[in-house]
Design goal:
Two copies of one chain form a homodimer.
Chain A (H helix, E strand, L loop, with lengths): L7 H16 L6 H8 L3 H4 L6 H24 L5 H18 L1 H9 L8 H24 L8 H13 L13 H13 L5
Helix pairs in contact in A: 1-2, 1-6, 4-5, 4-6, 4-7, 5-6, 5-7, 5-9, 7-8
Chain A binds a DNA duplex (18 and 18 nucleotides) through helix 3.
Chain lengths: ~190, ~190
Amino acid sequence: MKTNTLSRKQEIYRTAARLFKEKGYSAVTMRDLAAAVGIKAASLYNHISSKQQILSEIIIDIAEQFTEGIDTITHQKTDAVTKLKAVITQHITLTADNPYGMAALNNDWMHLEGKLDYYLNLRSQYENTFKAIVQEGKDSGELKDVNVEILLYSILTTLRNLYLWIPKKGELKKDELIKGLTVTLLQGVEK
Amino acid sequence: MKTNTLSRKQEIYRTAARLFKEKGYSAVTMRDLAAAVGIKAASLYNHISSKQQILSEIIIDIAEQFTEGIDTITHQKTDAVTKLKAVITQHITLTADNPYGMAALNNDWMHLEGKLDYYLNLRSQYENTFKAIVQEGKDSGELKDVNVEILLYSILTTLRNLYLWIPKKGELKKDELIKGLTVTLLQGVEK
DNA sequence: GTCTATAGCCGGATAGAC
DNA sequence: GTCTATCCGGCTATAGAC
């Protein structure tokens, strides 16, 4: 059964992600985090085991969602443009669900200690799958003959930085954003 | 007269920018910086006055170049698309000249202390001018009737994160990048 | 201009009372 | 589950010898 109240542990993770977005992992102290939650720093350790563990759980959780999602999409039996649109939609949905976590994933991954290699593998896998979809669209003639590297960079960068923009645009409904971004990113390259 | 050797001060700034890109301002210690330069931490202070001053000079220097450049461009008597292409070219050129500084500007501006307000003003000014050019292109009919906010977000984000990509693409000549990005960013929205 | 030594502060994390 | 008290190490920056 779901409840409306977050567990203290969940509250700590969410608050940490928000603070990491604002100042970066290294600049956020356990005293900052504790104050934002409304307790003392020592009390945090009844819920979490270390600052590093907070970062790790935030980042790995999201990274796994992205990798699993794109794997599902890429195995669907549809054309490349449909897959691309599904990837864009997934990106917007996951970012809207957790913009602060996305910020940590983008900006603080290099501060991962134990799980850095695992994270880097997930990221490579995601990028390679994304690139394969773009290449597939070009090979099949669905996409114009643009530079794949540049197109990939441009789309990925725009999507990865959505967390900067989504919280400010609460008035833009998610559906409008999906439609608008799909058009902006793809209309120039679709045949 | 120019020399081939950087002054020690210049060497410190360049090295700091590179380290800030890799780990972020807060995670780089003066000992890290000193070791990368080949001296002891205390010796840094014969060349610079504080860690904060290093960050401030790196960021403000670049931010002023961007603001001055876009002001010049926007006052030229040409069409909006020509201005947009000039802004894209400027962005690529300034990023290629100083990718590490661009990283600090993107990721560490919130750690500015004395000059934070000044930086935020420069950034607002830049964004407003950029937006006015896009709006001008839409009003004049040069650009399709796309969502200005989304287009602006997409272009600006792509340009701002070029620093992540340019160092890896040494083989891509700057002219190719300018042409490729201009096409990718604008071909879908030009009439 | 670089060094050693160190001041003074703040960081993550733990111990143990309540 | 939260608190106070505290350890101990690392941080920026300074003092002063060479």
